[in-house]
Amino acid sequence: MNSPKPVIQAADLEFDYGGSFRLRIPALQLMEGEKVALVGPSGCGKTTLLHLIAGILPLQSGKLEVLGKALEQQEDAARRAFRIRRLGLVFQEFELLDYLTVWENLILPYRLHPDLRWHQEASNRAKALAESLGLSTLLHRFPRRLSQGERQRVAVGRALVTQPGLVLGDEPTGNLDPDNARRSLELLFQQCEAIQASLLVVTHDHSLLPRFDRTLELPALALAEDHRS
Amino acid sequence: MIGAWHLSYLRLRRRPWTTLVLVLSLALTLALPFGVRVLMAGYEQQLLQRAASTPLILGSRSNRFDVVLSALYFRQARLEPISLPERQRLQDQAEGVVVPLHLGFQAQGYPLVGTTPEYFERRHLRTRSGHWPLMAGEAILGATVAKRLKLETGNFLFSDVPELYDLTVPPALKLRVSGILQASKGPDDEAVFVDLSTSWILEGFAHGHQDPEEVDSKLVLGGDEDGVVMSRALLSYQEITPENLASFHDHGDPERLPLTALLFWPASSKEGTLLKTRINQGQALRMFDPQKVVEELLAYVLRIRRLVDYLSGILAAVTLTLGGLVFLLSSRLREAEFRTLQRLGCSRFFVTRLILDEIGMVVSAALLLALTSVAVAGLFLGDVAAWLR
Q1: ipTM of the complex
Q2: A2 CA to chain B: closest CA distance, Å?
Q3: Which residues of A65-83 are buried (b: 16+ CB within 10 A; e: fewer)?
Q4: What tens digit of pLDDT does each residue of A65-85 get?
Q5: Do B341 and A111 touch (CB under 8 A)?
Q6: What are the structural domains of chain A?
Q7: Residue ranges of the domains in chain B?
Q8: Treating both helix axes as pointing N-terminal to C-terminal, what angle do B348-379 and B381-388 enclose, rounded to 10 degrees?
């Protein structure tokens, strides 16, 4: 049996918000197939860390390897291409495009990057994903006609449709009631397991933490300085 | 990138009313100046073509625009008449073809033009059916008149009475359709042509009635060796037939029979110029070069076109500003969407393409609609020109 490889490996990460706030991550590692929760008080830099891992924000210093790719060496275009092909992102507000149907939102990544080829296999996979997320009967609906839980499932589907190696969730259950939040997280776990993706989720809901393999608490991990105080 | 184009297309399609309003307002802005230009150009061309095909017009010393527009396009105007002998006088002065015109009456709303067969020859008019009016009471109809009134050769139509309650005015005359003209895409399509004698009957210079010697003596009110005075109860003929044609007669001086204008095709342009100079030196009549008069008229039209151009420019500026604002506000409202797309992995260029593709599609649709509208308007150029006349 092969030992799990690291999916995220960070060392001496630093991100400075123009001198008023600095995020420091001395070390961070996430292994293949791991489901990790990232917690910490508001404003401690959880979302910033997630954006650094996703390549949305550029690295200022330190080393960060995601799915074997050293992000500090990548240009913006390369980071974007990497993000859309290899990562799955779920946001708190779900951020679905209101003029696209459920199906069109689900397969949106394929519309956004020429490297992602839309072919029969991808189509079958997307249909199976929609089926497993309970969206089969909603494919022609627009997001405004969906419940919060249904929107969240579409957002999860959009994050997983390209079969990413790593899924990043920024409070993906933050807009759901406790029952729905638990169900959604369960669904996210199942889907990630199905495609053997690792999962890093920012959450404020401590009741969900036992469901994760591990919890990373940001103040324990990072030195966040607020020079405003 | 096909993705941006596809997303823009879906967004426009899923907001049909917003898209429709944008496309329509932009199309209107584009079509208005183009359409006006095309229609005006066509109208100018039609006016000039007709004027150019008529070298000279002899008329009274009335307003030059009235004389020329009446003679060319049968526009109704109160013109001083010229007398019949002017026709012969003109013919005697220069070599060429003289075509008399009598205007001023209408039949079912269309101008009644009294003329001679030379008119049809000069205007290259062909009959679709029937023949030119050979006798008083016959009329040949322009193609549009026949179509609109649904008349065929052998049918009848009545002349309009200019003053319904004026008993001194001759009654309406029943005209027999002797033929229909082929369409010529000009004012001849919208006219009813009759023989000059018919026009003079309508003017009241001639009439036909029962023979006084064969009617009840009570209808004879008096008389002397010059003539008899008859009661108005005497039956006047309202229709001219081969049977009653001989009863039509005039009581006036043939020298005073009126004409509206004389069209003149001189044998040479030099002859025409000399004749024009000679006539215009006199006091009574005036000879016009229709092309020059129409060009003068078009100079006024051009000023109006310039005004329309300015107004269209203002409309375009307002529409473009509003359109720009709509897109700007829309972009503001779509910031969350653009942020999502960038987070998912799209570049700023992709987002810019999304907006530009949307603008491009709206502008293309508006342009297509504007061009189609102008092309359709062009198809109805003849109707529009007729309406403008």
Answers
A1: 0.87
A2: 32
A3: bbbeeebeebeeeebbbbb
A4: 999 989 888 888 899 999 998
A5: no
A6: 33-58+77-217 (3.40.50.300)
A7: 2-46+297-388, 56-208+248-288
A8: 60
